[in-house]
Amino acid sequence: MGLEVPRTGEQRGASDRERLESERGATTREGPVAREQKPSVPGASETVSAALFLICCTKHDHFGRSNVQARREQTGSMDIDNDPTVLLAGASGDTGRRVLYLLARSGLDVRAITTDPGNVGDLRRASADEVVVCDLFDRADAERAVSGVDLILTTVGSTPQEVFLADELVDGTGNINLVESAAAAGVERVVMESSLGVGGDRASAMARFFRLSIGPVVEAKTAAERAIRESGTDYTIFRPGVLTTGAATDDAQVASAESGLWGAVSRADVARLMVAAPFTPEATNRTLDVVRNPLLRNRSERIDWRHP
Ligand SMILES: NC(=O)c1ccc[n+]([C@@H]2O[C@H](COP(=O)([O-])OP(=O)(O)OC[C@H]3O[C@@H](n4cnc5c(N)ncnc54)[C@H](OP(=O)(O)O)[C@@H]3O)[C@@H](O)[C@H]2O)c1
User: Is the separation of the CB atoms in 89 and 136 below 8 Å?
Assistant: First the structure.
């Protein structure tokens, strides 16, 4: 499939919202959307495959501004030459560490946040320019963390214990505190690591399995995604399949959310896309499924990722 003609960020945002709404049977400007327009729904064998993926691949322990603004309005993406300052939430986590490594290599100024003061030394050694101890459940902490940044990447997530026992999850409340603080502070762009199955996604057996097996996380991430879309801040949301610790392939398949893509994908590949998204016009105001499943190339979209 060829490259899309770049549209403005606002146009892309509208199409993302409209598409997600239409897949729930809502009405678009063109009128009601027929259910037949949805991607085909895979069968029972895919359910078994999704379960096997989870069993085999899931981690065992758990799961200043004016120039920047002007360029974003022209191109729909950020310009690396304007030296945006990046806030990385989840920097100590398994995807976050890979994101931090890539950000450090790109020469961007990085503020990493962690809840654990014991992580500060490690994150500094991993080339974070600044480390802020911050609990995203605390709104004042979130406001302090976003002050002066242009771009936020969030890979935060909950432990299995938290998923089934906690009243609130960082996937939801924490990310919402982050994005609302970001919008109030005039942050340019938010990039979030979400998950297949979020937002009513039933397009694959894997998405349905995620909804059944980690329902509280899916609900929390759905609320966070909604807060991002409603914030007015440009965004890219990635919904990966089962995350692995494999190497980067630079051959992950992406497609608009609820495309029916399913499979595993390495955190390294997701990290590469998260870092590229703010500089990639075609990723502006998009919600994208991401997996590494070459068999589904025909359902995926070719995007010219601009790696910083
Ligand atoms: N596992 C899968 O197969 C899978 C599939 C699809 C999507 N996902 C999603 O992908 C994302 C990344 O997963 P991962 O396994 O790479 O990450 P991870 O290793 O679980 O790391 C989670 C991060 O969240 C941070 N965090 C937790 N509570 C926080 C709070 N209250 N305030 C600030 N930060 C907080 C932690 O920071 P501290 O260490 O500083 O507390 C940690 O760095 C998650 O959102 C996950 O749900 C996972």
Answer: yes
173 lines ligand 1 (CB under 6 A): no
Residue range 61-110, pLDDT digits in tens: 332 334 444 444 445 899 888 889 999 999 999 999 999 999 999 999 99
Total domains present in the chain: 1
Domain with 201 in it: 9-32+43-299
284-299 pLDDT per residue, tens:
999 999 999 999 999 9
User: Is position 2 within any domain?
Assistant: no
Whether this model's pTM surpasses 0.85: no
The answer to whether residue 308 is domain-embedded is no
What integer pLDDT is reported at residue 33 of this predicted model? 27
Whichever domain contains 178, its CATH number is 3.40.50.720
256 - beta bridge partners?
288
In this structure, is residue 237 part of a structural domain? yes
Would you place residue 199 in the very low, low, confident or very high pLDDT band (cuts 50, 70, 90)? very high
Question: 56 lies in a domain?
Answer: yes
- Is the CB of 197 inside a 6 Å radius of any atom of ligand 1? no
Residue nearest to atom 28 of ligand 1 (CA): 170
Computed over its alpha carbons, how large is the radius of gyration of the chain? 18
User: Is 113 buried (19+), middle (13-18) or exposed (0-12) by CB count in 10 A?
Assistant: buried
Dihedral of alpha carbons 192, 195, 198, 199, sign: positive
Most ligand 1 atoms within 8 A of CB, residue of 97, 156, 159, 173 to mutate: 156
